[in-house]
Amino acid sequence: MNYSLAKKILVIDDESMLRYTLRELLLDLGYEVVEASHGKEGLEILESSQIDLVLLDMVMPVMSGMEVLYKMRDLQYQIPVVLSSGRARNLDLKELQDLGVEGVLKKPYRMSQLADLLGNIETLKVEP
């Protein structure tokens, strides 16, 4: 991938080891990566950076993933979101789609599942 055209993914997750693992995988896949350890920090990054996709944990201190998602929509960010949650069964998938969620990964998930999901998201494709 041409790194000058790399798509930028914001990872918002309170688990530092998971953020590290995700960063390494996403870099290997050719994405640029920005990290936030909680929702408020993630929203601050969104205000100051061009982000192509948000990988968002649902359960975090400071702001939950749903709070972040609703705030993103209130601010009219049209950025696709992939949610990760250990409680994916309890989510209203129709509501999530209406909020621009492109996919939900149930923790623990394999990195290959994330890579496959990202490969299917149209806004992440880079034209040659």
What is the topology?
Blueprint: E1 8-12, H1 16-28, E2 32-36, H2 39-48, E3 53-57, H3 65-74, E4 81-85, H4 93-98, E5 101-106, H5 111-119
Parallel strand pairs: 1-2, 1-3, 3-4, 4-5
Description of the molecule:
With 128 residues, this protein is of the alpha/beta class. 38% of the residues lie in helices and 20% in strands. Helix 1 (16-28) links the parallel strand 1 (8-12) and strand 2 (32-36). It starts with 7 loop residues before the first strand and ends in a 9-residue tail after the last helix. The relative contact order is 0.17.
Shape field: globular
Uncertain runs: none
Strand content: 15-25%
The tally of helices reads 5
For the secondary structure, the number of strands is 5
Q: What is Rg?
A: 13 Å
Give short descriptive properties of this protein.
globular; alpha/beta; five-stranded parallel sheet; single chain; 38% helix; 128 residues; 5 helices
Please give a quick description of this structure:
With 128 residues, the protein is an alpha/beta fold. The chain has helices at residues 16-28, 39-48, 65-74, 93-98, 111-119; strands at residues 8-12, 32-36, 53-57, 81-85, 101-106.
